[in-house]
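Dear Dr. K.,

Following up on our conversation at the group meeting, I've run the structure prediction for DUF106 domain-containing protein from uncultured archaeon Rifle_16ft_4_minimus_1461. I'm pasting the input sequence below exactly as I used it, so you can double-check it against your construct before we proceed with anything downstream. Let me know if the numbering doesn't match what you have in your notebook.
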Amino acid sequence: MDTQGKEGSFAPVIIVMLASLVIAFFWDKLEFIRNWVNVILDPTAGVLLNWNLTFGMLIIVAFLSLLITVIQKYATDQKTLREMKEEQKKLNDEAKKVRDNPEKMMEIQKESMKFMVPMMKLSMRALVFTGIPFILFFRWFNDFFVAIGDPRFLGFLNWLFFYIIFSIIFSSIFRKILKVV
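The predicted structure tokens came back this morning:
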């Protein structure tokens, strides 16, 4: 498997994560950011949520899940990720066969660990494109739902748990359809 030059760096991911934290922390203090986000999201996502809270939220979650999946597909080297996962699967199968041999197990685990950092670097590339927009979206979500009285979806879920549960469902579906590793 050729991974030369494909490992990349964590630096862009760390920069985006730090910028996201700064935005999240200063959301209430920097009104121009909040106002700019409101100008974009109030007439789009806000209209959907005002139309029908549950269906609007489902549409938004489905759209965001699709967007993340497409970005994941094109921002990462799918071929290399697939090869690495295949190699890890082979090592896991081999490890199952030698469970009684601790020495051989350690050797296989060491080999398997070699894939962890490169796989993480490849997988995290999409965060560079989605980190800041999603922090802005989530801050807007929080403000929107607090303003309308913190509603419950399906009778018991707050917006964050609703988002998490349905984004997992939609992402799984879209990842299968688009063949994203």
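Two things stood out to me. The first helix runs from residue 11 to 26. The chain is about 80% helix and 0% strand.

Best regards,
J.T.
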